[in-house]
Structure formats: structure tokens, C-alpha cells
Amino acid sequence: MSVRPYREIRRRKSRQIFVGDVPVGGDAPITVQSMTNTVTGDAAATLNQIRALEEAGADIVRVSCPDEAATAALHEITRQARVPIVADIHFHYRRAIEAAQAGAACLRINPGNIGSPARVRDVVQAARDHGCSIRIGVNAGSLERHLLEKYGEPCPEAMVESALYHANLLEEHDFREYKISVKASDVFLAVAAYQGLAEAGDFPIHL
């Protein structure tokens, strides 16, 4: 019997995807991802932070891509970075397509914010064409209005329902190279949401 049982990790069986050349899920080692806080359009400053994160041991680095300047700089950033780069897409579906074309290894999106089914289809096609995986990112603070009306407030059930709805949007286009996160500033809410998510499918989970 271990004297520190809380240090023993029992991993659920999930399917495996790739973020660039880094396996995520399945029997792959748990990976560490961090994020830059630069203006991504400043490629030099962003690369400086990426190099520091590489030296610190990060396996994957995420950068924000809110505008065309960011996705334009992504060409140089992905060319020079030694770790896979995740493009954090806020709302505009064109940024996701541009990021895939620029060499991003993964797109962090909320499919519900991308827009029409046709736009979701275009983003999925760009990801498929350029070998990108996708992270579905659900946040307690930005849940869909109908879920807040249904549940009354952000709760684990609402977050899981949102995540599964978005996952289904990708599955409808026969795209399974995705992982899911359900984040909340309330730690207990986040833990409960992740527990519910883990029971709902075999997709990799991003903490």
C-alpha cells in the first residue's frame, strides 16, 4: 500500500490524437502545455517566449490568434518553433483557416462561436487538409444562453452538454482528431465537469 495514494494516477482509456508530432491521450505520457502572453503579431517577442518555454520543458505552446496580423506572423513562428503550436481562435472562422494554413498543429476553438454549419465545415476541412487537431474549449463563463436558461447557472451538467454538442459538430464531419477542455475559475466546478466529461466518451481530455 502506498503511503501517498493521492500521487497514484489511474488513467482512463482514451483514444489518441496528435498535436503535431506529440501524441495526446491513449497510453502517451501526459504532456505539458503553456501559453504566450505576447501580441502574436510580434513574431520576435512571441518566439522569445516560446524558446523560454521550450527550455523549461513545455511540450506544446499555445498562442492567441485574434486577428490577421497574428495568423500572418504564425508562418514564421511555426517555422522556427521546436514544439507544436496551438492557435487560440476567438470568434472569426477565417482566423482558424489561416492558422491551419500557417502551420498550426492544433486549433483551439469553440465550434458554437464559429458560426454557421458551413463555417464549421470549412474549419474542419482546413484542419483535415493541413493535419491539425482541434481542441474544443468550453468555459463556464461563456456558456450558451439556452444552457444557462435550462440549468439556471454554470454547472457541470451544462458544461458537459456544451462540450458534447460541440464534439458532435465535429463528428458530423467525420473529424475525430479532437480533445476537449471544460474550464472554470471555481476548482470544484471544473473537477466535477471533467469527471462528467470523462464518463461521457473516450476523447482525450485537456486540463
Question: If you had to describe this structure to a student in words, what would you say it looks like?
Answer:
The protein has eight helices and eight strands, in the order E-E-E-H-E-H-E-H-E-H-H-E-H-H-E-H. With 207 residues, it is α/β, with parallel strands linked by helices. It has one domain (12-200): Alpha-Beta Barrel (TIM Barrel). Strands 3-4-5-6-7-8 form a six-stranded parallel beta sheet. Helix 3 (93-101) links the parallel strand 5 and strand 6 (106-109). The chain is globular and about 45 Å long.
What would the keywords be for this entry?
207 residues; alpha/beta; TIM Barrel; 8 helices; 19% strand; globular
The CATH homologous superfamily is called: Dihydropteroate synthase-like
SS-derived structural category: alpha/beta
Distance between the termini: 28 Å
Helix content: 40-55%
Q: How many domains make up the coordinates?
A: 1
Main beta-sheet annotation: 6 strands, parallel
CATH architecture: Alpha-Beta Barrel
Reading off the top of the CATH hierarchy, the class is best stated as Alpha Beta
Evaluate the radius of gyration. 17 Å
Strand coverage percent: 15-25%
Q: How many beta-strand elements? A: 8
Which runs of at least 5 residues are low in confidence (pLDDT < 50)?
none
| Neighbour order of strands in the largest sheet | 3-4-5-6-7-8
Number of helices: 8
CATH topology assignment? TIM Barrel
- Based on Cα principal axes, name the global outline: globular
Query: Would you tell me the overall average pLDDT?
Result: 93
User: Would you list the SSEs in sequence order as H and E?
Assistant: EEEHEHEHEHHEHHEH
